Amino acid sequence: MKTLKTTLYPLLIATGCGNVEQPGVHVSVEHGATLRTDNPENQRGPQNWAPNFPAQADLAILLDVLDSPVIDSRSRDARGDRLFPESWLRKVQEAYEPTDVGDALDRENAYEDWRLVSVRVSPCAPIGISPAEDIDEWCWPAVRLVWQPVIENLRSAWGTHMKFYADDRAVHAIYPVKPRNLDGQIIEGAWREEVAAHLAAGLSPASIDSRLVAGFRAVRNASALALLNATSSLRDPTVAARDYENIEERPELMRDRGTQQRFTHSLQSFLSEFAAWQDLDELTSFSLPEGRNPSASDIWVFVGFDGNAGFPTLKDLTVIGRESGDQLVNIGPDQTVALGVEDEAVEAEIATGNNELSLSVIISSEDIDEMGPEMADPYSFLVPNTSCASCHRLNGLRFDFHSLSGFEDRGITVSPRVTKDVARDMFWARTLLHR
Description:
The chain has helices at about 10-15, 55-60, 85-95, 105-110, 190-200, 210-230, 255-275, 295, 345-350, 355-360, 365-375, 390, 415-430; strands spanning about 20, 25-30, 60, 115-125, 140-155, 160-165, 170-175, 280-285, 300-305, 315, 315-320, 325-330, 335, 405, 410-415. By secondary structure, it is α+β, with helices and mostly antiparallel strands. Strands 3, 4, 5, 6, 7, 8, 9, 10 and 13 form a 9-stranded antiparallel sheet that branches. Strands 1-2 form a two-stranded antiparallel sheet. A hairpin with a 5-residue loop joins strand 5 (about 140-155) and strand 6 (about 160-165). The radius of gyration is 22 Å and the shape is globular. The two termini are about 30 Å apart.
């Protein structure tokens, strides 16, 4: 991890107050650590956004699974690198081999079947481990890509022909935005890493050095602004602003071929800037075993990886208590669940009387009814505070575990948690200039 000594930190510790500078960036500790740029022409931002930006379709970009791919596994960024390296898929396949999924990904899907099905743009993704921390303060902009294999012209085991069929598995890739100044230029610094490490250690935000807080807040806001500016640029000028209001297929993709091509080109440029393979921070996946029959097989397996700068490393899945901050259970490198059944490690820990864990996971249909609204609320549960399966159990169709990915031939599922996360991000983004 880079230390702040090589970045903005020495400038901040010089006096502890007043204005301190680095090229293109000014941080005023005395006045709440704000950023400004020397070049007014580069001050893009809300003054150039559409009145309703960001809307839901800006922050949850659905590319659909019932048509030809917009971005497929062979798509490359501006540097010539693949957006979804085949080595990542091999890592995911290897992780599933000792589980109930086995070699299903090898047997049912080719690398060429995988496509990008959605993009989540989050200007303020929480980086802490507890909702007791202010998630609107302790956050950092990030982009999440959802990849999924979609089969064309599939005939099911029961004889139904489907032009497009989204297999019951997906891979989520998460990329924090690199630190930016207000000109949108990348700057060196480890503000996100330093603050996240502090919070992960269970330490109070109040004990973070005030100079680090000032730098974090200023660079976080500038980085979020850069992400939002680029997101705003994805809108096609021929599409009405009202067409971005709902979480549904991106409106450009329902227009003429020229509009579709312009959007595809713009999206590739966006991904080149904000989703380079080297910037991978986390990779997660879930899959059904072989057979393409979720209601009958009734098994789903989840795995997760540290991004490791583009070289994913399998990690253990855990649940962190949202109140205690303690690790409530270490599930291991994979989580296997069914309808009404949690992973054996979770069930065993609950059986010991771990009440906090029991109140942190959703298992039964009754749990969904009782805990679902709270689980869908980003101010009540952060991702570390529950199991992977719990986040995916909130859909009305109980054996649809998708969250912004496709389910069979029914199109993309938008889970209740995604809807609430997008609403929160919209509000945060629209109030960015007041922070």
